[in-house]
């Protein structure tokens, strides 16, 4: 059986680059994406889509 705290799919925080401190929490596959994730998502504090970067 798979472990809950699997090392292949760690939980990562995505922090807004708009400086609001807003975060999303998600999982990623470390084998497919070994680098830090960068996604464009909605930041409700500035009411627009901005880049969110992974922090560990």
TrEMBL record:
Q: InterPro entries attached here?
A: Ribosomal_bL33, Ribosomal_bL33_CS, Ribosomal_bL33_sf, Ribosomal_zn-bd
Top-level taxon of origin? Bacteria
Q: Which GO terms describe its biological process?
A: translation
Q: Name one GO molecular function term.
A: structural constituent of ribosome
Q: Name one Pfam family in it.
A: Ribosomal_L33
A GO CC annotation given for this chain: cytosolic large ribosomal subunit
Keywords assigned: Ribonucleoprotein, Ribosomal protein
List the PROSITE patterns: RIBOSOMAL_L33
Asked if the record carries the keyword Ion transport, the reply is: no
The record's similarity note reads: Belongs to the bacterial ribosomal protein bL33 family.
Q: What's the protein name?
A: Large ribosomal subunit protein bL33
Provenance organism: Nocardioides immobilis
């Amino acid at each position: 059986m798979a472990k809950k705290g699997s090392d292949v799919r760690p939980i990562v925080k995505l922090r807004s680059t708009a400086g609001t401190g807003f975060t999303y929490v998600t999982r990623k596959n470390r084998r497919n994406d070994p680098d830090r994730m960068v996604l464009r998502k909605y930041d409700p504090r500035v009411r627009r889509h901005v880049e969110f970067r992974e922090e560990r």
